[in-house]
Amino acid sequence: MLQNPEALVNEIVSRVVxxxxxxxxxxxxxxxxxxxxxxxxxxxxxxxxxxxxxKLTHQKMDKIINAIKQLAIDNAELLSKMAVExxxxxxxxxxxxxxxxxxxxxxxLEDLKSExxxxxxxxxxxxxxxxxxxGSITPTTNPSETILxxxxxxxxxxNGVVFSPHPKAKEVSKKTVELINKAIVANGGPANLxxxxxxPSMDQAKKLMEHPRVDMLVxxxxxxxxxxxxxxxxxxxxxxxxxPPVIVDDTADIVKAADDIVKGASFxxxxxxxxxxxxxxxxxxxxxxxxxxxxxxxxLITTDSDLKKLENLVLEGEKKYPHKDFIGKDAKxxxxxxxxxxxxxxxxxIVETKKCxxxxxxxxxxPVLPIVRADNINEAIEMAIELEHxxxxxxxxxxxxxxxxxxxxxxxxxxxFVKNGPAYAGLGVGGEGYTTFxxxxxxxxxxxxxxxxxxxxxxxxxxxxxxx
Length: 468
Ligand code: NAD
Hints:
Helix content: 40-55%
Number of helices: 17
Bound molecules: nicotinamide-adenine-dinucleotide
Number of strands: 20
């Protein structure tokens, strides 16, 4: 059963293209916005398109990649507005920063470096080739950012991509896929190189994972989806959850540390996976840190009754998971709903608590930041490792003591370790380095880029081209 007229047009296009002879297939499909009513069609159209795409010169591919980067910048406002309206998560201004960041700092073809070995026996070349078709499962928290960023890296590597977006972000995700297809076709590439389905669901995601024409899977989301792609039997990259701890020691610039933490933990209402999720402060500086965090826009919960109001609102069920209605909401809305007086400038809610509290243990993904005291640096590091739950995602430290910084970085082994800045510096916002919205801790690729979506191939020329 077809869902909408766009899906109907796409189905006709994919069927016509599928029935063309080999000679006719050399011509890329000229229309199609990448949206199909069913996952099988989305995969099949992508397979046809990728066969055309890999024949393009690198110069032409580069032009396409640059056009996708530009569209991320040009449409940052539109996509951010759509994401906030549809998902109810995060805030518009920070999403604009994130979408623009993708356009400005996601690596393209320049990430793909060949290697060579020369010697008495000739020349051996290692080249990075496309995997083929990648199935990419994307989250609610960075819907357009992940689709844009993954498309740039995956297409730069010569692949086609079929997206399975989160059902709660389907409109913004489809819009992003449409814009990408438009940019590809306008720059001489084939239509439907990036596809998705009109109505994403778990069933469609399962179909994508099991589809025989899908060569590689990339999951960006929580532990469930990472586990699912790793169990698929296909080559898989898993970019999973985090619970980033922040340590502040007694050598830190406390005023700056407080301000950085408030900025980082309130960015996009704390839904970003790298965002500060709990603070561990040495007891000697903890009161001053809390004082300075308030000066930077944090509201401190000071009474048991306010704490109860907050807990009753934002935690649900016996196991005290974060309440879905408050994930990604802003601090003022949460305080208002909880009936807690606050300043109109409030950006973040802070509360001092014990390490066993659900605010500390859970990835809350809302601007509620718990603070736990530690007696000394060793206790702080031990606690941070425990609270990160072995995700190896992100950790932050504010300190001027090189020994402390090194000890924590070595012990926690996270993919991202930020020193003396907000956690988002690890994504390239105010920090050096390229960006990605697929941070693969569980499978070890780290901050993914084009080279991670390739197969390494060796080509050996015996007794030739050794020109020394
Ligand atoms: P989610 O896990 O609920 O959903 C992510 C995607 O996976 C969605 O498309 C969803 O439909 C799909 N999905 C979930 N379970 C699945 C299963 N068993 N089989 C197939 N598909 C499945 O996550 P979310 O709420 O959209 O995003 C927030 C989570 O993602 C947080 O835990 C956050 O830390 C994490 N995240 C990680 C990164 C990273 O780069 N490491 C980036 C963004 C978000």
